[in-house]
Design brief:
Blueprint: H1 2-14, E1 19-23, E2 29-33, E3 42-47, E4 51-58, E5 61-68, E6 71-78, E7 82-84, E8 89-91, E9 93-96, E10 100-105, E11 108-116, E12 124-126, E13 133-136, E14 139-140, E15 151-160, E16 163-166, E17 184-188, E18 193-200, E19 207-214, E20 217-224
Antiparallel strand pairs: 1-4, 1-7, 2-3, 4-5, 5-6, 8-17, 9-10, 10-11, 11-15, 12-13, 13-14, 15-16, 17-18, 18-19, 19-20
């Protein structure tokens, strides 16, 4: 019990500032800089709504990681040029069991389920010396840190009014060891975008994930190694 409590404290403290955010600038885009200062150091430009992973502020700057054109990139953005997903309307937890959580608010009903990982039903690729797992079903894995996963996602179902959206299995079949207690759901009413976020880990292979539902359709998933 003490180990679990310590893990929760570390997880929470490590994510006080580290979390997903979107670019949110009056100009419609934000300059990304290679250093936490103004000058001849603009490395990129990101449009409003672009998902980034923001870390602890350094004075007036926030370090970010993001993926663009299938490349993992990083830089700094001025602190008032982004908006953290946690600032949007929260969809609260309604019911929780070991393998299923339900979130409800107004016309929203979001259900996330997990299942035991069955290695007999998966194609597992090991390292040359057989000491760790490299891939499962041809994909690099998140959350297992080279070990055989114990828990996998089973389904993510979103009901918005009369619309039911099933997040495709391809958006979570490489993600393991989900921590339902850390799942947070926020809704951007102005843009009609739902964000489903979670901090997951087996104790070593920690990662952050966010699924995006936009205008009643599944749009994308982003992952980050936040802790």
């Amino acid at each position: 019990m003490r180990l679990i409590l310590c893990y929760l404290i570390l997880l929470y403290s490590g994510n006080l500032f580290a979390q997903f955010a979107i670019i949110n600038d009056n100009d419609g885009f934000a300059n990304i800089r290679s250093e936490a200062r103004k000058g001849n150091n603009i490395s990129d430009k990101l449009d409003n709504g672009f998902l980034v992973y923001g870390f602890q502020p350094e004075d007036n700057w926030i370090g970010i990681d993001y993926t663009k054109n299938n490349k993992d990139l990083g830089g700094y953005v001025y602190k008032d040029r982004i908006k953290f997903l946690s600032e949007f309307t929260k969809i609260p937890l309604s019911k929780e069991t070991a393998a299923k959580v339900t979130f409800k608010k107004d016309n929203f009903n979001i259900v996330t389920e997990s299942k035991k990982f069955d290695p007999k039903t998966a194609k597992i690729t090991y390292s040359k010396d057989k000491s760790y797992i490299q891939k499962i079903n041809g994909k690099e894995i998140w959350g297992a840190d080279g070990n055989t996963p114990k828990i996998a996602y089973k389904s993510i179902t979103v009901v918005m009014g009369d619309k039911t959206i099933e997040v495709p299995a391809s958006a979570f079949d490489d993600l393991f060891e989900p921590n339902f207690f850390s799942t947070q759901i926020n809704y951007n009413k102005k843009e009609d975008i739902l964000y489903i976020c979670s901090s997951n880990s087996d104790g070593a292979g920690g990662y952050e994930v966010v699924w995006v539902i936009e205008n009643g359709k599944y749009k994308e998933r982003k992952t980050a190694r936040g802790f």
